[in-house]
Structures
1.
Amino acid sequence: MTDMLDILRDIADAVVKAVGLIPGPELGKDIEMGADGTPTSEVDKVAENTVLDYIVRNNVPLNVLSEEIGYVDNGFEDTLVLDPIDGTSNAIAGVPMYTVSMAVGKSRLSDVRYAYLRNVMTGESMWAEKGKGAYKDGRRMHVRKLDERDLFMMIYLGNGADPSAFELAKRVKSSRSYGCASLEMELVAEGQADGFYMNSERYARAIRVVDIAASYLLLMEAGGHIYDLKGEEMDMPFNLESRSNFLACADPALFDFVMKRRAKSMGDGPVFGLVANPNVPNVRKYAERVVSALEGEKIIFDKSAGNILGKPGMEICDMWVDIMVTIGGDGTILRTLMNNSAPVVGINAGGVGFLAEISVDDIEEGMARLRRGEYTVDERFKLDSSSEGEMYETAVNEAVVHTDSVAKIRQFKVYVDDKLATEVRADGIIVSTSTGSTGYAMSLGAPLIDPKVNAFVIVPMAAYKFASRPFVVPSDSKVTVECVLDKGCLLVIDGQAEHPIEGGAKVDFVRSAEKARFITFRQDFYSRVRNKLVNAI
């Protein structure tokens, strides 16, 4: 070991000794509020004080960033990024999965040079020096080879977990949630797990740099990877304010599997899903033609398609498929995308069907192209909606806040990144994605937007003042709609889900980490506009 790793080992020894002296009932006693805004337990404070005392007594040339005390500037170039006890709830409950986690770097994850992790209960030690590999109790650690048929995943399933976490747990062979991020990521570095998926729908529950600084270097030195949920290599500054969701993995291909970026199944070939709108005329005939054209392929039916064909069906959200085929109009497509993240191709048996790719006359040709893989997958961003801490369904097209009473006007304030943009009296406000610009927003005079443009459109509905016009804002903005009057409103998402909104409440809209994926046969956006909107109307 280098001198710095020896120092970190000695600090870990001191923490283990100090924590061992705390009486069991006292471990979880809350004694103050930490710098991260959460209560500090006795075990956390004892561990942190032990580290700080060691640094002072031994003149260790390090600043400190710690979960409890915050940043301590000792005037040095390097900083010790410390989580004195990662897995406090485990420690209090007597579960032997909690660590002292330490990393040394200058200002962010990417420049961490030393890492040391100690399981306080078992005594197992893991360490790494940048460029020199990662070790567990002296044994070199390596990530393992990916086998999608035998995936073992660590998944955050706490009370802030995004619904996609539970969906992923159903797709993999085995999963665990241990409540100690540093150890869960270390298991990937050690080759015991394929990945660690952290996705919290509540920002306050997302990961901080102190939680993973040590295991970050362990994973990287063991040959692993860590990405944010947009697919970029993850990096975080040394502070307690920044939080992030991420995927730590042994193989970059796991990112594509977890985020469903490719049509690849766990079996020998793609699995098709069929969703049908039972109210469409001739829907049985269309469904039978799809099944006939996909003869020999594995097909899973939603409940409506199953009833129509006399076959077993399931809820759309429970359909693990590679390609989803819908029969209906745009509403059927939107309902499917709200409940499943598989790529969707629509057979237009409805009206305009702007989002649908295949006409009923071309069902056989369309299914043949799917089987041959002659298609592309077009990814579109989705829209998240929340109010008073409650998250709602993600939208592909738009979310609408409107009056809950017929012919009753409401007053709204609209904010962009917390700055007042407009105040209007109207029937409602639409917040539309670029995909949704050809839908409800278009009918109210908003511009058509190429889906490659990352923008929201804010559209007043039947505004009292003629000067109330649509706004186009960047998709990385936060849009807030305040229902000013003490009168109720409704939040309607993609025309599929409704939620009551109390008078005076605010609804926030932000770009979602989720993507809507459409299977296309290379018809460009402008041709679609001409064929389905201009020439058809």
2.
Amino acid sequence: MSSHVINQEVRVKGTVQGVGFRPTVYRLALECQLHGEVSNDCDGVLIRVSGMDTKIKEFLNRLSVEAPPLAKIDSITHAVIERAWDYRDFSIRGSSHSAGRTDIAADAASCPQCLQEINDPNNRRYLYPFTNCTHCGPRLSIVNAIPYDRCHTSMHDFKLCATCAAEYRNPLDRRFHAQPTACHECGPRLFLSPDSPATSIDSAISPLSLIQRTQSILDVIQQALVEGKIIAIKGLGGFHLCCDASNHASVELLRQRKHRYAKPLALMAQDMSVVRSYCQVSEQEEQHLRSPAAPIVLLNRLVQADANFPALSSAIAPGSHLLGFMLAYTPLHHLICQRFGKALVMTSANLSGEPQITDNEEALEKLLRIHSANNESDTTDTEIADLVLYHDRPIANRIDDSVVRCHAFGVQVLRRARGYAPRSIALHSSFQEADQILAYGAELKSTFCLIKQGSAILSQHQGDLEDVKTCDDYEKNLTLFKNLFEFSPKHLACDLHPEYISTKLAQAQAQSKNLPLLGVQHHHAHIASAMAENGLSRTHAKALGIAFDGLGYGDNAELWGGEFLLADFCESHRVARLQPIALVGAAQAMLQPWRNAYAQIRNSMTWTTFQERYGTTKIAEFFEQQSLATIDRMLQAQVNCPLASSAGRLFDAVAAALDIHPDKVQFEGQAAITLESLVDQNYLAQLLRAKSTEPCYQIEVLNNPITQLYELNPAAMWPALLDDLNLQQSQSKIATRFHAALIQAVLKTVDLLRTQHRFNEVVLSGGCMQNEVLSTALQSAIQERGLVCITHHLVPANDGGIALGQAAIAAARIAKNALSTEIN
């Protein structure tokens, strides 16, 4: 068949703006000998090509394969155009803009070409700490408005020099329309406080002198790290606190100054050799470490670290077998890390309970020295950082580092932020009519979610809204997203909990704008979130959802946290649960695990029996130090002791019995994380074998005749667990037996429910499903039963994914109501 000239119009949707897509199209069109044009518009990229049909086919085939690294193509459609076009060449047209939807790229780690430039003494960007191109660099962290042009970013005050301007205008240059592009001469500059003559700056300083000044700053930083000092460094989305990870005194000092006494600290390395010296790294984990998102990846630490590298401080991740490593992801990080050569602590710079600092003045005031605000005569200063390294490119939007964990069934995103947000999450095509829906999410690990034209746009991790500054930042980001995506909500969704700050914000907005507000049950939102990210249809049949977390507001003002729900996107029905147990002291039970152990044990046996049989255990000794008479009166009178079917509190109770943080946890999930780290995988596999002869704890599954629910009752487990404590069995053995008992009880419940209900999928969600031991064992066993197991990979299983679930439920109910109205 002979070739002939045709005209085609090509539409590309997805993350295709601000990532070098038009220059790629331009290059491919020239190489394929095509005429036409390419432009950005409100729906993505529009391409018009004229040429031989064989060449157009080649062009279309190469378009997907050779797309820029940061591009995310959702769809490519093309159609033959009959009318005549008179293109004499191929050109890149300016952007046209009208209301529509196109994705904004996420911030991306430095590309190999930029890294090569900053390390080449003959390159004009040698040692330039803000080198970037269309393949890498800041995006969401610098954008203020749309369209995504330089004037709408925090680079607007930096006028391009002649050489940078030429690169910016050249379609064949990888810096064509790279909005943050700059160099020593025209771009942002580093500053160091306290200053020194070698690092001070003159406004008329030459590019060569600027290189020398940068070298001097890096030398000061290097020496400070060697001396064990703590440095605040302005990164992409906020300041970090940095020190030598092998200097135990420095790490302990950082914890004391920051008042972060237990929560694991993130680590940064220059390359994989450093990471591999301390951790086991799978191929999948390495791919994520090296990806443009460059998240923190939780890795299993080696039993015996590489002797060629210094031992890490034991204070980095106490009580955990995991280390959180990320690779250097900005030129500045690379320049610091490659000089130091060892692992660095790189943790968010903030005061206790506050969000990460982004502003220079605030950093200098709060990180370098904190002055007493209450007593002017108090001249004592407390330093958090010995040095503050900052720059004059403003951070428009705070973005924390993302956190992921890989396992046999894929990857779990534990915190979705830098590198991932604000990329949209593709929903099933049945949601294509969903539009202008805003979900406010939960209160802890909060996010919000927009649905526009059938796609879900989940915000970056916001933090805990209980903190006033975090709440302010949440509202600021919500306004930003509305502007960036030209979004004006017509429907709102929120959690049912009346005291959640996110719920109150939604209620205030609904009232002031006269908008409909949908309250969504917390655990239904968890399940719907996993269903949505896995592309299930809006009208998909009910699945069995298992939502295990710390706490969520249930029906009839009950407190839920260990739920089995038959759910689709429109509705859910509870069919099983963990047996509700009193939260002794209500909110205090979330902070003090011993309270949960006491309530569980009292539910299992009399106090006399416990004292007679187990009075010599450490947990019994701990109980004797508490005001048990007061606690008993509270339980008897049901005062400040609400019942909760919480999986998270069951984990806390077992941990407390094993003398793991019984008095107080320093951060959410601390006791449960330590408990998980004690599990012996080989012993667990032995316990879970069908014909295992090993003794195992029993969590009974009983049908409650009053509630008509199956209930997982751990009462029978406690005598056996306490017997093991009397026998001085190891923490590892007891932790493993507990995990096995819970896994077996969940699977027994699934089997019982299959006899009464029809479902083909089991959905796992909730913060407790971030426990790798629990989630991977359940996934494996569920699949062995011939069921499809649906879990999280794109959004967190914890409350960071709640907003997506709320939005999907709202979209489904709106569509169902609209259909019902049409029929009637």
3.
Amino acid sequence: MSTERLLEMHGVTKLFPGVRALSDITFDVRAGEVHGLVGENGAGKSTLMGVASGALKATEGRVTLSGQHMDGDPELARDLGLAIVRQEPALMPDLSVAENLYLGLPEKLRPSLSGLNDWARELLKHWSNDVSIDPRDHVTMLNPEQRFIVEIVKALECKPKVLVLDEPTEHLAAEDVARLFERVRAVTARGASVVYISHRIREVQEIADRLTVLRDGEGQGTFDARELSEDQIVSLIVGGDLDRTFPPKAAPGHKPTVLATQDFSGPGFSQVSLQVRAGEILGLAGIDANGQREFMRALAGIYRSEGHVTLTGEDVSIRSSKGAKRLGISYVPGDRHREGIFPELTVRENFSIRSPHEDVRGGLISNRAEHGRTVEAIRQFAVKTPDGETPIQSLSGGNQQKVVLSSVLAAKPKVLLVDEPTQGVDVGARAEIYKVIRETAAAGVAVILVSSDQQEVAGLSDHVAIFSRGRVVDMLSGDRVTEDNITSAVLKSTQERDKHHTAVGAFWKWAAGNAAPLIMVAAAILLLGTVAGIWNPFYVSPRSLTGMMTFAATLALVGYGQQILMLVRGIDLSVGPVMGLSQVVASFFLLSDLGTMSQLPGWVLMIAVALVVGFVNWLLVEGLRMHPMVATLATFMAVQAISLILRPTPGGMIDGDIMMALSAKVGIFPVTFIAAVIVAFVLEYMLYRRRVGVSLRGLGSQQEAARTAGIHPKRVRLLAYMGCSVFAALAAITMMGQIGIGDPRAGLSYTLGSIAAIVIGGASLFGGRGSFIGALLGAIFIVQVNSVTVFLRLSQEWQQYLLGFLILAAVALYSKSRMKVVQS
């Protein structure tokens, strides 16, 4: 092993408000070595690597990567050869697998976007020839194991000099762990180095050359990985000897049956007959995806099921998670980040949210009762937090898990379902969680446990059901509940991990894709047009169609701007007043008695005014941290006030030549409509085939992952806000051909219309998803609905009915399809 140091950190200290996360850490990584980094959750491991990767800036100390000083710049770290695989993959869920791989690589290694899917498919084959990941799928469609594989492939293809792996095997099957270790050895064989962070000490000892121990943000020394025993490493991690034995199991004796299933079946499992008694823990074991986790989620009401279930001797029907909770069945999810915590809420809110009835006094939530219960839970479960008002996302994984567990138990369940109770949790917190689970069972609660750690299942469970291919193939009890017996029973049932996940119907997978909204809206336009044309032939006359296309062009253009902004999770309520102000400005300059050169400042000023408004909106949102709706509502009122000051009443006739140019047609097609169509296709091309489009979607999909990929959030949002306002000004130009006068109120209806158009066209209010062609179709549909109600002699209410129905249908279909693919 070389003595060359690729990564050096000297005297690194990192302070957060009220917390010293790192204190005077010195750490180095040599070329050709695997350097293990171990410690409890909250010890500072991820923070230390955050400083190394440039995601965090050290308060004190010096970081050197490949001989160059680092100063909190993730792009520089990546350019210098550092790649990191995080515990929670830094992927953008609304982007495809191929696009995530593209953005994850340094710019010099990126291919052309035109052949992206084929390139990504070859990259995935570097991991395994039979990898079951389609590069065209959105990341949101992947299961946890597949997401980690994509993240690892992305990091390996960067050809890093220093590769950081943060808990890389938590979701990997045994064969994929073996593949990972092969790749790690290949990385070090070419002279690069690997920092391996894991709670699995045996793993670290197997793969690492040296290991460094952190405790409470302080270094406890660097050692040869094979010189220390497992117990010695644990002692260094926790600061003393740790009783690693599991709590005593339930004493033998007859206990009443709390929960029993008979011929219970659901997605991924069938004909399961089990029972669990009061005071006992029933473990479910087997190779993952063989039905045990699906069985538990069906009991929790998350998956649909059929068969017989009895609770305390009575037949019950579990149709939903709410119904399960009402029956006294509570569930602790295994995916803590996605299903367990509410990251934006406090510890108190996360604790009380599952049992709010306990805090009701006189029909209202009592803050005093809620605070008291939270304080007691923090004490009882030894949660390390400054207080109950601390955001839960700032806590370590082990403490987050304790809060989730305490929250579930606060509902006083009869049956407790626990999925992966200690996944991603340090050794100290594990012992405390084991104690809580056993004490819960001793209090008379029936506990069902699923864990991928066979030692954990054996140490906690009184009985263990072995699952294989969706069925229970063996039951272990008493002295037979050992890790060896569980492993033996599992291996005798099946030698391979079944990697399937619930199949999603072709329709739902299609509905979750990008093309579905376009086809839906296009079909709605054709259907509505056909019905209206049959009812009243004048509807399809050239004059009628030309008029609709003229109005659709204006709505589409302002919709494009709104779409750009909504891609990055923004919204602009000021587009209507901006259109009005642009029209008012034009009414002072674009006059018939002024020459072309005298009119030029008017054109420039229209765009300049829009740019100023866009910049102000961005400044309010990014600089003052105002919510986009609040910020743009403020500019809505300010811009509208300016327009009314300049033109209290409509006035100022636009030059007739300009009006004629804007009203020009090619056949029955207005020139403005043709321009709007061309712009839609150009923007759509840029959205999927140019980096600017991928950056917009990536930032809206997941900001932190986008920032890690080298996308600058502030710059991209500035582009989006100013682009939105410019398109509002362009829409105002087309509107001049319809109004011909400076009217400050002319654009007001376009604010809500632009939002409706892009939502109908497939945009997500949460960012990352949208289509400019969809915005064009949405604009056409809205104008068409307004026209149809006139031709069919319907009341104005029908405009709102039809638009409201399609908006609800579009959002409902997308939400349902998204839920289907996420749960698959």
4.
Amino acid sequence: MLHSRILLFLFFTLNMFSNGPIAKTDTLSRKAILKLTAEATDNLSAFKFEQSLATARVALRYAINRNDDYLVAKSYNTIAATFEALSEVDKAIFYYKKGLAYADKSSNDTIKSSLNNNIGNIYCFELNKLDEGVNYYKKALEYSTKIDDTRGIYITKMNIAWAYFYRGNFEKGRPYLDFINKHQSDYGGKGTIVALNMLNGMYYTNKLELDKADSFFKNAIRLGNEGNEKSDLSYAHQEYANLLKKKGDYKKAYENLVIYNSIRKSLEDSDKVKRANIVGVNLELDEYKRKVDTIENEISLQYLSLQKSRVIVVLFIIALTVVLLLLYSVYKNYSFKKKINADLIIANEKLFIAKEKAEEASYLKSQFVSTISHELRTPLYGVVGITNMLLDEHKELADSPHLSSLKFSARYLLSLVNDVLQINKIEENRIVLESLTFNMSDEINLIKNSLSFIAKSHDNHINVVIDPSIPEYLIGDKLRFSQIIINMVSNALKFTNNGEVTIKADLVKIENKAHFIEFNIQDNGVGIAEEDQEKIFDKFVQIGRKEIDYQGTGLGLSIVKRLLELFNSTISLKSKIGEGTTFTFTIAFDHDPAKSIELINKIQVDLTSSEIFKILVVDDNKINQLITKKIIEKNNYKCIVVDSGIDALEILETETFDIILMDINMPLMNGFETTIRLRQKGIVTPVIALTAFDKDEIIEEALSAGINDIIIKPFEPILLFKTINQLLYEENETELV
């Protein structure tokens, strides 16, 4: 702030002491100056060079005094054109460009076009710089076109044609000649007729159409003698002489050159030139005088400033001191920032390395979890399957505590695997909610039945209370919803003995199609202490667990909380030690009756069909082969088993199947590659992947390979047959259509 105040003080102080006298200048009206410039142009047209320069000099002085950029440019244009006529090329270019500098500051496009055109003439005809000259011509055309100056366009295009012909480039000049021939009567006027005929003569001379060229040259000479275009007449005689040389008429060619020299001599009368040069010198003196006046004014201002030098010096010292202090401060800040930046660069490099390591560790963790889940699910499929086979084939063992324990242990281990895999997917944001039509009542009752073994082991009873106003069919992610209910109810059952667990659903609000349903999972178990209630949703937390206490990983409620976040919902609880716990959350499901009816009609499949389907099982694991074959044959389907993808392709060449059950993780040729090859062979049989991989991990690759559906091992037999019937029903329906 101090620095800014000093600068403002300096500014006002200097202004206070710098008031000097203002010189008075002669003035003249704009109309009068325009009249002077017009008079100078007329004198130039009449080859009165001395008068033209003198008049333009006066007009320039008044135009400068008025600060009128257009009038200054116009005056310089006339002065430069006069020097051009006097063959003072350097001076002409100097004044043309000076005029152009003022013209560019004005808004008048006519003067801009005129100056660019005239500079183009100098470069093309005097300096032999055709490309630079044509560039100036094109700028002149842009300005003339912008203001629709047809006369200016015509004159510029004539100059371009003349420039190209002058340099012997007749093909480039031809389009411009065609234009001026076409528009002579509209835009040209009498002042250009001599030049037009001469240009046609030059063109046809180059084409060796000598008689036609001769006619144009004679017309040019006749019209030049009748009018005042003496300069164009002289050039017509010069070019006509070139034609006569080609025809071999050297006498006439000589006569025309004599006439050319005579006309040029009369135009460039030495006395006129001398007088004009004197005026030109005076004009240059004016330029120098203006510079001297400017310098004197500057000296006068400096003298006034020096009178106040003491004040200025003091203020300057103060300002310099402040600036030095600021510079020192900036330097210190810069040094500090440089050091900080160096530290930040090192820290960023370390963070980048740490980030790469973390990403690599995360990838390895995901890969490890996926591999472990696959490796665990595969033998679990065997354990669950063989247990079911024993119970089916040996009814006398139905009440065997050993088999029940075996089945319970297998299901428990599968639950652990699913929990670990689920929390891993949530942490990596790999879960996207789906929109499927489902019956909420059926889903909850199915969960109730599937958890009956846990309920029995703790002597508990599960109650289901569903609000009748809830629509029969809702739209949402039924899989994630089921995971939430399963985790909540199984958690309640494990912490309740000889009691009840109630699943309650109430419709609390409807907004458009969204139906907000409040769920209460209530038990009368051990309860949760108030100080522990915020911890239970953290991973791996098990409140009050002892060595022989409740089973589980401590992931269930953590998974519930994160899945509810995907539904834009939260969970709350009320609990007292020894009285039980109630968990409450609300989920919004859509309800679309028309869509639900359409979907229900499509999935009405008769699972009791007596038709015998032929199924091919492709699996390299002998135990899996045995279990899958027993499940299929138990449902009266015909089953053939092969050990590899190669064997599957061979048998499909000779036999036809209704469904193919394909394992994914096989040696030599996996399930994806096998499916791709059979699709390439034109085999359209539906393929169901039976795999221990998580569905979300393989769904994209499975669909791209041509697999129709995926079932994760271990699975319930009813799910397998439901999927088979749905695929066969869809296939038959397509054939009917």
